[in-house]
Structures are given as C-alpha cells and as structure tokens.
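Hi team,

As requested, here is the filled-out complex form for the iron/sulfur cluster run. I kept the field names the same as last time so the parser does not choke. Let me know if anything looks off before we queue the next batch.

— J.
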Amino acid sequence: MFLEAKMDRRSFLKAAGVAGAATLGVLAIEQPVIKALAQGVETPMQEKWVSSVCIQCPAGCGTKVRVINGRAVKIEGNPEHPYSNGKLCPKGYAGLQLLYDVDRVKQPLKRTNPNKGKDEDPKFKPVTWDEALDDIAARMKKLREEGKSHTVAFLSGRNRGSAGAVWTTFTKLYGTPNNLGHSSICADASKKARLCLDGTDDYAAYDWENCNYVLNFGGATLEAWRPTNLMLQRWAHMRRGRPVRAKQVMVDTRFSTTAIKADEWLPVKPGTDGALALGIAHVILTEGLWDRSFVGDFKEKGRKFRTGETVAKEDFEEAWTSGLVDWWNNVLINFTPAKASEITGIPAETIIRVAREFATTKPAIACGERGAGAHTNGTYNHMAIHALNALVGSMFALGGVMYQIGAPYAALSIKDDDYMDDIAKKVDKDFKEHKLERVDEAKSDEWPLASNVYQNIPDNHAEGKPYKLSMIFTYYTNPLFSMPAPQRAWEAFKDVFIVETSSYLSETALYADYILPDTYYLERWHDDRVYPSTGYPVAGLRVPAVKLYDTRNSMEVIIDLGKRMGGKMGEYYNAIGSFENML
Ligand code: SF4
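And here is what came back:
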C-alpha cells in the first residue's frame, strides 16, 4: 500500500527542474519543504503514495494519494483498480479541495442558542469529545428509562461498506426501529420493480460492452449513474471502442447531458416512462417480435397477439417467463402506440419504430433509474421497463441484463442478538408484530414493500404520526437540503435534538445541537462494498493518507457511544473494541 521514497535536495531539483522549484519557492514560501529549499537547508523529502478508494459518489473508484512530508498533494487514479482502471472523474481528482476546505468543522461543537430556524445563529462553541459523548449518552439513557428509545432516529445516506451494519446493530441494541435511509428518493423504485417481477430486491448489472442497443429511461449515464466512472468508460467503448457502434435512445423529461450525447431523445411527459414501455411491449407482441426461446410461443404456429383480443392461457406455452398472458389480457391488450402516445407525448410512429429497433437489434438493454423511478408510480414504471428485457430475451444474455451481487462478508465473531437487553427485545418484538411502527411508516401495512419512506419523516414527526421524535442522528445525509420540499423539515425539526456528523457546515448542521465531525475519506480506515454494475462483486478499502484535525471516524464514535451506554450494549461494544478491529 505504501510506497516510501526519500529525496534529498539535489535529486529533488534534478527531478523537478531548477526553474520549476524556484517558481514554487516564490509561490509557496511558507511550505516547510520549500522554505527549507529556499534557505539552502538539506531536508529529506518524505514521499509516499497511499492506495485508497474515493467516496464522493457510490462508484468507489481506486485512488492513489501522493503525500509529501505528511501533506496530501495529489490524487490520481489507481491503474490496478478492477473497474476504474486508473481513471477518475473531475470530483475524484479534486478530492483535496474538501480535505483542505477552510470551512471544515475541526472539532466537536455544541449549540448554545436553543432557538432553531433558518436565520438563527446556532452559536456553536467547541467542546471535547468526552463532553459531547457523555452528554449524548446521558440523554439517550434517559429516553430509554422513559420508554422512549424508539423516538431516537438515525438518518443515513451514503452508508458505505460496513457503515450500514454498524447503524443496524446500534439501533437494534439501543431499541429503536428508526434506522432510516434515503433509498425511497434514490434507487428503490427500480429495485422494488425487480422484487415484484422476479423476487430480486437488488441492483441490476448490464453487459454494456456487448450491447448494441440501449433504451434508457432516465438513467443519467453520463452524469451520475453508478458507477459514474465506469459508465463513462463503457459509453466511450460502445460509441468508439469497437467496430459496431451501439445506438443510444434516451427517454427523459429534460434535454440532459446523456440525452444530448444520445442518438435519439424521447422527451416524455414526467412520470409516463412506464406508459411508453407498455406501448413498446404492445408493438413487440402484436408484431410477433418477442424472443421465443426466452418467452415461449403460441401452440398454434405463427400466431401473434392481436389488439383487443384476449388470449387463453392454455394457448400459450411460456418458457422462462411467467404471467405473460395475464399481462396481455389485463394491461397490454389495448395499450396501443396511439394510447401510449396520448399519455407520453411521444408520436405513435416513433413508438412503433423504436419498438421494432429495440426488438430486432440484438443484444438490446432496457434500463433506467431515477428519471423514471422518482415518481409516485416509479415502481410501476420500472416494472414495465424491466419486463421489456424479458420480451426480447436479454435477461442473463450476452450483451443483456444481469443482477449485481454485493461482496460477501464473513460474520463477526460475536452476535449482536446475544447482547439485546429487555428493552431492545421488546422494541424488536413490537415492531415485528406491527405494534410499533417506524416514524416513516416503512414496512407498515400502508408501505409494506418500502425499505424507507424518507420523504414522510418531517410531516409524520410534525403530526406525531405515529409519534414525535426526540433525537435525530444524521450521517452522510442532509435532510434540510435534500428532502423533497425541504421547507417541511426546516419547520418540523425545530423541536428535535439533532446530532450531526458532517465535517462541513451543511443546512442540517445549522440545526444541530451537537456536531461530531467525521473524518474526511482520506483520513480514515473504511471499507467499501461497491455495486459496479458489472455483475461481479467488489470490495474496496479506504486507507488513511493524512489526518488534519480533531475529527473522528463516525463508526468509531458510534462504537464509543455504545460503550458509554453501558449494560449489555456496552458489553457488546467493549467486545468489538473498535471499527478498525471490526474491519
Ligand atoms: S466517479 Fe465517484 S468515486 Fe469515482 S472518482 Fe468520481 S466521485 Fe470519486
């Protein structure tokens, strides 16, 4: 991991060029090395390259960080990384900007102004880690004693690697069902669509290299689709890196960067992506363009589906699909291109042409993400889109669609179940028996499939439905900015005790009662379980390159807090020791 190199003044000047060194001396005379050079002192230069993993988006690209005399000076791509291949996006290269951001929170802060609001100065004052954690632990113990442990919520966003498991265990042992993620405003719609269609509640993976036709419903391939870096590389390969140039058709409400670069842009009305997919499916079935080997066929040779005409189940023998005849009879039978056109705004003749191209240009992929999913009908949109892959035989086919598996981890040597006390057990039991719901109501009778209903939190808390929250922890999420209609959170969260873990003064930090600043990703050990959209699992490891301030890895902080809680919870965390030990 570490490549150490020592250079004396002579070899440094030889390598860098005398003129360059002199210029640096003028520009950065305060830097210790340069200052020493300017004074003519022989100072050995300590250089090392630290291999790590970027965290600025879910791609988890491999990085190499150049550190000179304890100061990180450059980030490069790691050519040995399995899918970023030595490349980074601009954010990756610019990672030092955040490390050295002058506005970073450099030590724990405590709010002294009890009033919260957009224009309220929190009047933060620095405190020690012990002061902050002892106070928070005391408040949490009191809530437990009062039977209100369930009113403590943990809101998290980018739970990379083992971070999610750390929150899950902490909430389980403390006794709250409110381990709340943001996935309902992220990728849940496409995952739940796959769950409904074939039972796979996970990300899809795509064989982009071998695909010849991409029908993309709102997946921001060139902007932000995980893993961004790999998607950019795959796009380039599909367009110029091989003899056959794949066609890209972009379905999107806006003329996005991906739409600009695509061969064709289909500007659907918002939330109507599923209707377009259904119109395409209708054409594929009525024109007899479906893949017989995957879907099956009519017993009567040469028969096709006919608009307005139901099909008897016994007339069609399905191969690898299940329910096609029901889908036809109940949904597709009259979902003509004309009807799809009315709903989507895309001309019927375009729908027919795209359907023919998609079904006959093999292999083809129908894909999409938030553009189609971030609507109240998002899961249904994605069900219709994903089903197109089955119709044309692209499931598990060369150049088609697969599923993405996460890297398997070994279990810890101790089980958290063995450390649940009576309070934790009761909360767990009540939640499983629906006597106690989460504050976002995910997994309740109203939202049975939802992993999270992030957007419900402010209103539910404000209305006390099912109850009001007492305390919120936030980790890698900024609800006062990113929550849909965030003004609801600005109002609702005024009366909640908030512990924020960001090292940056976010909107949520301005409402915080404590800021327990996390380390930057270049400053900590942290594993990463990546979903590279390639099918194979990848795990990466962040390795600290530098450490600047009195910040702490939030995972270490939560383990420390667990120890301070005492009882069985404390026993568990004393046995775990530290996050580094867990890794
Ligand atoms: S694609 Fe994401 S993980 Fe990769 S360098 Fe850019 S921000 Fe970092």
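Two things worth flagging: The domain at 2-99 is CATH 2.20.25.90 (N-terminal domain of TfIIb). The chain has three domains: 2-99, 109-186+411-518+553-582, 204-403.

Thanks,
J.
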